[in-house]
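Please, structure for the following, as tokens.
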Amino acid sequence: MEDLGAFLRSRRARLTPESAGLPSGARRRVPGLRREEVAQLAGISVEYYQRLEQGRSAGPSPEVLDALARALRLDDVERTHLDALARPPRHPDGHPPTEVRPELRLMLDGMVGGVAALVIDDRFDVLASNRLGTRLFRPVLTDPDAEGNLARHLFLSPAATDFYVDWDEVAAATAAQLRLARARNPEDDRLAGLIDDLDRASGSFRTHWSAGDVELRASGVKQLRDPDAGVLTLYYENFDLPGDPGQRIVAFIPTKARTAAGLRPQP
């Protein structure tokens, strides 16, 4: 329950009394709400809330979780994350699949119209890519220290700050997505090992991880700097694969003709 306590503390720290509908009162020594204020808003005792933050009370009821979500102004992703922390899911083997079905590989290869695509898992391992995906992410896929992992390259390779035009925003989102994945897969020792490695080796990762944020990204715009073509601006879409737990297809579509031209594989 330590992760549950840490998440509650991070969400409490980001709120102001005004945002929670409370009087600001006297000057505060630390930012955020006090424990007593969260307990008051949630309608639970201060002692019980303190035990939750300290990891000394297991299995809060759905009613308590709902009350805490309202008190802490959690969004839908944060509310789902709170459930996962309070009642960690159990998977028989603890290891999401790493193999990509042949049918998925055929589908990747059949994508046309300038679409670059990857199959990745919750650890940000690149499990497969089509020709344009390999072309687009060659700085990652050819980095021996990254081991084919987008997060390792992002946080551990000096070249990543050049490859990702909006590096800090991508870094924050990646740490938030890894936090969400850890709660969903508490028995995945490979995921835990990745997070430990990043925590030891990257001060930037530690900063973003300590924020306690969680995020689920379905679509958006990403800018990548290609060594030959310059900055490429792409729409991306994530497609979860219900038959392959923990895996998803990420498709990248050029936003402009110049990006499409720059994305074409070299002859």
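The beta strands are 116-121, 126-129, 219-226, 230-240, 247-254. The first strand starts at residue 116 and ends at 121.
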